[in-house]
């Protein structure tokens, strides 16, 4: 089974949100103090593969650093950023979503704005800022699913072309 994962961090690199989607178990977010090694490990134990976008360079090392949880050892990693590079496709996650018609309600929110939303929530208790951050994270996670499907389709097409 696959887990789709994305994290958000604060300005210091501390993890503020971890979003995970696993098949029938559905989508779950861990936020702030709710983020513990045990909770994340317990939720991910049902998955064999973790799908991310640039997770090998960012998300998984941050989880290892802050939660002492080495998901690169316990799970197979499928980093769509690396797949994109092999396919010789340019662009970040948001550009790829637009390219492949993957919808996003949180248009205009990016990693920097996500940090600001967390700060607004922490400093002023604004639940609207937290709600937008959580929606942004959820879209980052759930949009990995159609992106992976598109990449797999492109890989199959490429392999079929190689046969001729």
Question: Can you describe what's shown?
Answer:
With 164 residues, the protein is an alpha/beta fold. It has helices at 37-44, 59-67, 71-74, 80-86, 93-99, 111-124, 127-142, 144-162, and strands at 2-9, 15-22, 26-31, 49-52, 76-79. It has one domain (2-162): Ribonuclease H-like superfamily/Ribonuclease H (Nucleotidyltransferase, domain 5, 2-Layer Sandwich), CATH 3.30.420. It has a 5-stranded mixed beta sheet with strand order 3-2-1-4-5, with helices on both faces. Helix 6 packs antiparallel against helix 7. The radius of gyration is 16 Å and the shape is globular. The model has no long low-confidence stretch (mean pLDDT 95).
How would you summarize the topology of this molecule?
Elements: E1 2-9, E2 15-22, E3 26-31, H1 37-44, E4 49-52, H2 59-67, H3 71-74, E5 76-79, H4 80-86, H5 93-99, H6 111-124, H7 127-142, H8 144-162
Parallel strand pairs: 1-4, 4-5
Antiparallel strand pairs: 1-2, 2-3
């Amino acid at each position: 089974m696959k887990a789709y994962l994305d994290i958000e961090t604060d300005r210091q690199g501390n993890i503020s949100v971890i979003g995970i989607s696993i098949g029938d178990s559905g989508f779950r977010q861990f936020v702030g103090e709710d983020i513990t090694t045990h909770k994340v490990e317990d939720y991910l134990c049902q998955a064999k593969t973790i799908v991310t976008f640039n997770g090998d360079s960012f998300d998984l090392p941050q989880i290892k650093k802050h939660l002492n949880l080495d998901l690169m050892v316990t799970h197979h990693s499928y980093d769509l950023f690396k797949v994109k590079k092999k396919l010789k496709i340019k662009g970040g996650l948001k550009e790829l979503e637009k390219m492949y018609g993957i919808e996003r309600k949180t248009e205009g929110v990016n990693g920097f704005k996500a940090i600001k939303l967390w700060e607004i929530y922490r400093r002023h208790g604004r639940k609207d800022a937290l709600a937008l951050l959580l929606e942004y994270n959820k879209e980052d996670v759930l949009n990995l699913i159609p992106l992976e499907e598109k990449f797999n389709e492109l890989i199959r097409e490429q392999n079929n072309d190689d046969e001729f």
